[in-house]
């Protein structure tokens, strides 16, 4: 992989991760069409996602800090309640339990934890399938057309009013399943999860925030899996530099696109992206049969 290819893939990742046109699908198409070989499987793809994770962190740093603190408090109070349970069973004096979910942000943190469970399960068991699918031109094509359908659905969804206090854990689990399925190349993660949120009745701005923030544990989990499998890979110093540059480009471009996405969702402007995904998907499918 050359430096130019690394930069171009960083731009593609930054643009397509937050705009609802599928970063994985475009990266897969780019690598297939231009015969890009990173020699490290999908490790570089995951690192590019880390670049866009940095962009999310810059935009939503206040929310992230609050969610981390409240998440730790949830674990602390849940652990305390376990201790109280056993003491109440064995002792004479009855101790009071702590209310674990006692604020809107704690509920928000818990919802993200619930969403992460199905995403992690699907991502872990379907990792090899996703890698193979990324090498077959027809798969991103079909998934891009599916993305187009999802975006048209999102544009015609009624405006919901659910904020953390109104969202159920069943809603969160369903959105997590959607995110897990969206690991397929060509299915837009943001488009799929935002559509799932809107169908569940989420308020539109909250749907965008939820979609972006719930990607953080998913990206970190994918990075851990890739680094675990990458211990035997031989990566040169030059490749490391290219990877870092690509991540930086993805972070900068991604930051701009998050701001753009907030306006798009608020104004229901998904139709243009749906048409784009439909055209690129059709071209991909046509290219597959042409090259076959």
UniProtKB/TrEMBL annotation:
It is found in: Cell membrane. GO terms for biological process: cell wall organization; peptidoglycan biosynthetic process; regulation of cell shape; response to antibiotic. It catalyses: di-trans,octa-cis-undecaprenyl diphosphate + H2O = di-trans,octa-cis-undecaprenyl phosphate + phosphate + H(+). Its EC number is 3.6.1.27. Keywords: Antibiotic resistance, Cell membrane, Cell shape, Cell wall biogenesis/degradation, Hydrolase, Membrane, Peptidoglycan synthesis, Transmembrane, Transmembrane helix. It is an enzyme of class 3 (hydrolase). It is a multi-pass membrane protein. One of its GO terms (molecular function) is undecaprenyl-diphosphatase activity. One of its GO terms (cellular component) is plasma membrane. Its main location: membrane. The keyword Transit peptide does not apply. Pfam families: BacA (PF02673). Catalyzes the dephosphorylation of undecaprenyl diphosphate (UPP). Confers resistance to bacitracin. Belongs to the UppP family. Bacitracin is thought to be involved in the inhibition of peptidoglycan synthesis by sequestering undecaprenyl diphosphate, thereby reducing the pool of lipid carrier available. This is Undecaprenyl-diphosphatase. It comes from Roseburia hominis (strain DSM 16839 / JCM 17582 / NCIMB 14029 / A2-183).
